[in-house]
Design goal:
Elements lengths: L6 H6 L6 E5 L4 H12 L3 E6 L2 H13 L4 E5 L10 H27 L2 E6 L12 H20 L5 E8 L5 H8 L5 H11 L8 H12 L10 E4 L13 H4 L6 E5 L4 H12 L3 E6 L2 H13 L4 E5 L18 H29 L2 E6 L12 H20 L5 E8 L5 H8 L5 H11 L8 H12 L10 E4 L10
Parallel strand pairs: 1-2, 2-3, 4-5, 5-6, 7-8, 8-9, 10-11, 11-12
This protein binds NADP nicotinamide-adenine-dinucleotide phosphate.
Amino acid sequence: MTTIVPESFATRWSLVGMTALVTGGTRGIGYAVVEELAELGAVVHTCSRNESELNQRLQEWSVKGFTVTGSICDLASQYTAEDYSMIMATNLESGFHICQLAHPFLKASGVGNIVFISSVAGLVHANAGSIYSVTKAAVNQLTKNLACEWAGDKIRTNSVAPWFVKTSLIDQLISMEVLEEKKIMSDLESRTPIKRFGEANEVSSLVAFLCLPAASYITGQTIAVDGGLTINESFAGMSLTRWSLVGMTALVTGGTRGIGYAVVEELAELGAVVHTCSRNESELNQRLQEWSVKGFIVTGSVCDINNVGMNYPKPTTEYTAEDYSMIMATNLESGFHISQLAHPFLKASGVGNIVFISSVAGLVHASVGSTYSITKGAINQLTKNLACEWAGDKIRTNSVAPWFVKTSLIEQLISMEVLEEKKFTSDVESRTPMKRFGEANEVSSLVAFLCLPAASYIIGQTIAVDGGFTINGFP
Ligand SMILES: NC(=O)c1ccc[n+]([C@@H]2O[C@H](COP(=O)([O-])OP(=O)(O)OC[C@H]3O[C@@H](n4cnc5c(N)ncnc54)[C@H](OP(=O)(O)O)[C@@H]3O)[C@@H](O)[C@H]2O)c1
C-alpha cells in the first residue's frame, strides 16, 4: 500500500525543531518520555540526582542518535525532616516553581507545552498515601489554572495520570514492604479491567501526543492512563510500529464532511484501510475519488445508519415526543447497536478499538438543547461500561468530546438561526481560554491517537478537545 504523507500531516505528527525539558529522565516514565520525544524529533534536556546513571543514559541515547543533554540536580530544594514538607516540595512546589521559571521561554516559543505527570491517586483513593495523593490532586487543579491563565500566551497545559507502572518507584515500595508484591498483583488484577500493570512507554506516548502540533486544541485535561481503573469505580517495538495503523481496518460513520471526514484522512494517513458512509451518493463518490488520488485506501457505502450526531436545539419545554425519539435513536441507540454488531469482529481482531464522538455538551451545560446533551452524557457513560465489560476481549473504548468545531453541523444551526453568528462567535471566544473554535483535524488527531498501539493502556476515558472550555469556571 502506498501512503502519501503530505507535509502538513508530517509536521502535525512531528516534534522536529522543538526543545523539551523532562525532569527525572533516567528511569521509569521520565526515561520513556525522553525516548518518545527524542524519537519524534525533539531536542531533550533531562536531569536526575545520580551522576553515573545520568551519564550512562546520555551515552545510550547518543548511540541511538537522540539529541539529549542532562544535568545533575535535586529539584526538591526544601527538604525538611517532615515527610509532609518533603513530599509537597518534591511533588508539587517544584512543579509549580519550574513552571514559573519556564513561563517566559514557553511564551517566547509561541508553541509552549506543559505536561505534568500526575497519578490516578489524585483522582480516586488508591491506597498510595494521602500526602502523595494530595500533591497529585493539586497538580490536576494547577493544570486547569495554568491552561486558562496562559492560554493567551499560547501555552497549553495538560496532565497525565498513570495507574501502577512498573518503574523503580514501585520496586522501591515493594522492597520497603509498603507494597507486598503478590498481594499487589492480585489486587491489581481484580481491580483493573486490563488486568495488568502499565508500561512506561504506554504513558510516554500520551505525553508525546499532547506535545504534538496535532493536539493543538487540547488544554486543561487530566487524562488517566490506567487500564480502566478509575472508571471501574522493553521497548515494545520501534515507535514506527507503535505510532502506525498499518494492517488495521477502521469504520468511520459519516465521513464525507466535518469531523468524520478529518478522521478518515487521519486514520488513512497513519496507514489504516478505512470504510465510511453517508447518505449523499454524489458527495461520497467525490470524496472516494479525492482519497484515491491521495493514495488512501478508503471504501464507502451510501446508507442512513443513524449513527451520527444530530440536533434540534430548543427549550426543553418545547420538545415533542418525536424530536426526543429521533435524537435518542440517532445519537445514542444507533451507537449502542453498532457497538453490539461490531463486537464479534473487534474481539476477533485481538486489538479492537471504539472511539465515540461525544461532545462537551455531555459534560457541562452548553446551551445546545437538553436532548442532545443527554445523549452525549449517556455516550460518556457507555464508554465506561464497554471499556470495562470488553477489556477482557481486548477491545479498548474511549470517547472524544469536542467543543464547537466549524463543520456543516454548526453552519446548519447558524442557518436555522438557532445560533446567531456574530453573538455566537463572540460568546465562544469570551468563554474559551484559547479564544477560538476548534478545527476538525484537531479532533481527528486525538481519535487517531486513541486507536494507535501507543495508546494501549488508555480505556474508558472521555477527553475534551475544547481549547480549555470545560475547565474554565470563571474567565
Ligand atoms: N461540530 C461541532 O462543533 C461538534 C461539537 C461537538 C460534538 N460534535 C459531534 O461530532 C459528530 C460529527 O459532527 P460534524 O460537526 O462533523 O457533522 P457534519 O459536518 O454535519 O458531518 C456529518 C457527516 O455524517 C454524515 N451523516 C449525517 N447523518 C447521517 C446518517 N443518518 N447516516 C449516514 N451518514 C450520515 C454526513 O453526510 P450526509 O449528510 O451526506 O449523510 C457527513 O458526512 C457528531 O456526533 C456531533 O454531535 C460536533
